[in-house]
Amino acid sequence: MKMPFAAPAIAGLAIVLFASYLSAKSASPAEPQGSFDAAPVGFERPANDAQTPLPTEEGYPEFRRRVGELYAQKKYAEAAALLEQGLDRFPGHVMANTYNLASMRVLMDEQDEAVDALEEGHRRGVFFGKWSFQEDVWEPLRGSARFQAFLDRNGALIADAQRKSEMKLDVRLPEGYDPARKWPLFIALHGGGESLAEFVPSWTSARLRREFIVAYVQSSQVASMTGFHWQDDAVTLKEVGEAYRRVLAGYPVDPERVLVGGFSSGGYGSLIVAFEGALPLRGFVILCPEVPTNLTDAAITAAAGRGLRGTLLTTELDHRVDTQKKLAERWGKLGLEHVISVTPNIGHWYPKDFGDRLDQAISHILGRAQTTL
């Protein structure tokens, strides 16, 4: 049976990723089809952007490590008992713990108890991610009327959250900002299942902080209780366009030096925006992107004619790397100036030297002396 791997705080069995995540995602497994990136449910982010645990949640890292050990030892009943204790002990992690508890119950062939755990999550005020139940581990529950009723309820909760959701914009000004001069603009789009709280500390570099107005945009497209995505092309174009116009109205932007970029689902959204041609973009920088299936040769040729440049950063163990390489090959055949760089021995995540790579990509796009990526 294929085991579920956590996707962005929106899907997947959190504890499956203990070994790979604790080794800096050196071998991150593929995400479920249709889901994207960010830190898995139940995990804290790496040290540079971890959210501060709630005061009542002291001991959670050790708790999750123990659950992971029990899972690795196939001691599912012990893991389930520990997760049940964690529901009251760690109220800030109800989504992860009820989801993982349900997963343990499935592995123990206790389907009714698995649905009980998921329903308990709803009773405690959480809903689960848009793509949380696509993996094969949930196959024993398919066909269950209770499980389908749970999925319907979960979908209604997502839809309700979507109706209330709005695009958010966080503008960061460069060091030594002078409103009397024009500045280059970088529009940055978070990964799927992320919010700006997770994304902003990761998508940065010395040059961005020093030379750019950076517009961090959070999509309104709901992926989970705390995360968002960029997979609806029409909404993405509308919201990124709105963000650009708001920045342009409030800050002295140089329209000849506008870039877009992002991680994973944000990379997908960046490609949609870049090749649509609605904004005066100089180029794009994308990391481990999902590749749009509707990107035509005509759109690539037109972008090349506009002088668009791009840098595709990816990783050797990213599950989409072959598709990304094929996209870069198309760019080359159709005349789009680009660089592709593959970091070895890491999965779907940021390389340790991401800031340097981002600055090198900016140099490529803006025409300064190139540095080998």
Features:
373 residues; alpha/beta; Rossmann fold; 7-stranded mixed beta sheet; two-stranded antiparallel sheet; 9 strands; elongated
How would you sum up this structure, described in words?
The chain has 373 residues and is of the alpha/beta class. It has two domains: 14-163, no CATH class; 166-366, Rossmann fold, CATH 3.40.50.1820. It is 41% helix and 14% strand. It contains 13 helices and nine strands. The strands form two sheets. The protein has a seven-stranded mixed sheet with strand order 1-3-2-6-7-8-9, with helices on both faces. Helix 11 links the parallel strand 7 and strand 8 (309-315). The two termini are 39 Å apart. Residues 1-56 have low confidence and may be disordered.
